[in-house]
Structures are given as structure tokens and as C-alpha cells.
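Lecture notes, unit on protein representations.

Consider one protein chain, 351 amino acids long.
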Amino acid sequence: MRYPIDMLSEAPLAFLYFCTKSTRLVRIGDIEIVEFPLLLAPMEDVSDPPFRALCKKHGADIMYTEFISSEGLIRDAAKSVQKLDIFEYERPIGIQIFGSDFDSMKRATELTEAAKPDIIDINYGCPVKKVACKGAGAGILQDIPKMIRLTEEVVKATSLPVTVKTRLGWDDETKYIVEVAERLQDIGIQAISIHGRTRKQMYKGEADWSLIAEVKSNSRMKIPVFGNGDIDSPEKMVEYKNRYGVDGIMIGRASIGNPWVFNELKHFAKTGEHLPKPTILERVEATRYHLRRSIEWKGERTGIVEMRRHYANYFKGIRDFKPIRMKLVTSMEVDEIEATLDQISSDFENA
């Protein structure tokens, strides 16, 4: 299948690395995607359909769902099943699953394929204790042979392309990612996204992209290699693209409350210039859209409560915002929240 190509415009010499004369599309299985795609990372309680809709509108090329428990899927748990919801405008879209049991992951793969995503992704990167200590997510990095066998079972269970998101290793003594990536390719995965930290690091310290570069420069690697970790500015994206040679970049925390980041990065890569930052009115409208879609998808109470984690990010940098934020995070009435958003527009747009 083929998706629209974002053709690159003429760019300054410094950016010709991005804007070569021959367009080299990235392929994940039979899916052709733009050259050097920007991916929305799968983030629990963030990468849901309302947020994905905003990221797609503002330039995300590939998106992944929140991770979904294989055990939850096979038990028909409502929250897990709801995460299978995907929409045509999101394509290409990947559904991410996690687990450590062979039979559960195989059955979850079959259920996931029935939801008709473009890609099935396996989470081998989540570092949180409740996941990793059960041998799932980044926990499986302590048992690489099992990681390989489990991946092979998922690949065999579906006709869709399978991708993997993982980390450099469990700790500094077990950074086996170069060998692991090669072995995963050999048993059939179609792309790999690598977060440049170990599980022990969690999200602390600086992401190390040097090993990601080693994976990409391995002459045996033929599948796309996407880098993840610490991309928080257009300048850093260009620097890391040029220095490490990855096929694309996955954006996680930098997108929270900032779905505009994808177009900002693309614009800078093409022109060497920064897009203007979104105005207060644009931030308010994005927040309002996000809120309404959350309520539509999750129901009024859950939609209101789960939006609370986003307000500080949408309005980051606004002076004296705390009293306004308190109104947003304590109200359970849609009309009150909408009125507070109107207040933000009137109070801060011309400040």
C-alpha cells in the first residue's frame, strides 16, 4: 500500500542531507512512507485517539497506539479492547502490544490483527516496575533468547508487518542492542525503534544514540532503524539525523501538549527556519478539541479527568497560570472548563 508523500521543497545547503534529489522512501513491509518519517511514540495515557488526531493533523507520519496488555486483550478487559480503536485518517497506524507469555502474545496478535492496523508493534521498552518485573516490556531484556522466541511467535501469528520498540539493554553491562537488532531482523521484524537508554536509567540522564548508530551502520541491517530519546528541538533533530544516520525519529515526551512539534521539525529541516510558536488561541482551540474528543471517546467523567494531565503542557510558559490550571483540573463540568478556556483566550492572547 502507498501513502501520500510529503515532497520536500528546495532547502539551504546545510539541509541537503534531508533534501536529496532522489526521494528514498522508507518501507515497513509493503508500506511506503515519506523519507525520514517522524513517528509518534506509543505513550500510556497519552497516545490515545484524541491526541493522535491532533498529531496527525500537525504532521506525524506514523503513529502508534498506547501499549495494550496481551493478557487484558485475551480476557476481553474493556480498557484494553478500547485501545484497539483506530481510524482511517490515522494510517499508517500501528497497534502496540506487550506481554511475556507465548500463548497470550500469540492470541493477542490475532485479536490485534482483526482490528486491521497497518502494523503490529511489540513493546520491549517500557521500564515501569509493574510491567518490567513481570518479564514484559523492558523486563524481557534480561532474557534475550526468550525475546527472540517471543518475537518469532508474533511474526508467525500475523500477516501484518511486525515492528519492535526497545532500549539499549537492561543496564550498562547488558547493552546488546546491536546483536539483538540483527537477530530480530533475522526472524522477521520489519522495523525497529530504539530508545537510547537502558531500563535501569528509566528516563534519567542523556539518551545515548551512539549504539543506535551502530545498529544502523551494521552492514547486515536492511530494515528501517528509528531513533528515540531527547529530541526536543529542530536543531537537535537535524544534528542527530546527520550524525547518526537513522531512517527516522520517534517523538515522545516532546509532543505532549505540543502536537505542533512534527510540523515544526519538518519545516526547519526543509528551510532552516523556525515556524512561529502556536498562539494562545491556537493552544486553546487544540485543548478544546482534545477535551471534546476525549469526552466523545471515553465518556464525560473519564474524558474530563484524563484531560487534566495535559493542561500544564498545553499552556507551558504562561506566567501566573497556576490559578487557571487549578480551575481546569478541579472542575467536573464541561461548561465550566469551556468557560475557563475562553478566559485564557481573553486574558492571555494580548498580554
